[in-house]
Amino acid sequence: MEAPALLDAHVQLKKIYTALNESLDLTRQLADAVDRNDEVSIRMLVAMRQEPVDRLAQAQRALEQQQRALSAEDGARLAGLLKGAAAEAEEERALAEQVSLNGRILKQVVELDRIVNRKLTREKSIYQ
Asked: Are 82 and 9 in contact, with CB atoms under 8 Å apart?
């Protein structure tokens, strides 16, 4: 895969990373608000979390569009890298590392969201 395609994908992954970090921060604040029983802050923070989610979705769509624009071979390679495949060349290393980092941040967001959701909804939690 050529360097410009890798760079374009890395830019989108960095946008995803930024959105995930913002979502994690807001979810931490939400957890604190839930612990304080601060309903005004809870509502505000839930609404604020939508913005990074929207930016994340936009970056994900850009990655999918880029993947479709590549040759079949390069598109398949990019898809593999985005799913966590190991770098096969030095040029792919930064992209593979960013995918791994994003996955770790996403896991943190999901775990914290699971805790907050259970505190807020108790037995009606979307997480079973």
From this structure: yes
Token pair 């969201």: residue: 113
Which residue carries 């979390």 as its tokens? Answer: 49
85-105 pLDDT, tens digit per residue, is: 999 999 999 999 999 999 999
- pTM score, whole prediction: 0.90
Which residues have C-beta within 8 Å of that of residue 87, sequence separation ≥ 6? Answer: 81, 93, 95, 96, 97
Quote the CA–CA distance of 126 and 86 in Å, as a whole number: 33
User: From residue 113, how far is each of 9, 23, 26, 77 by CA, in Å?
Assistant: 27, 10, 10, 32
Half-sphere exposure of 12 (CA within 13 A, CB side): 19
Separation CA 52–CA 58 (nearest Å): 10
Which ranges of the chain does DSSP label H, i.e. alpha helix?
A: 3-36, 39-48, 50-69, 72-82, 90-121
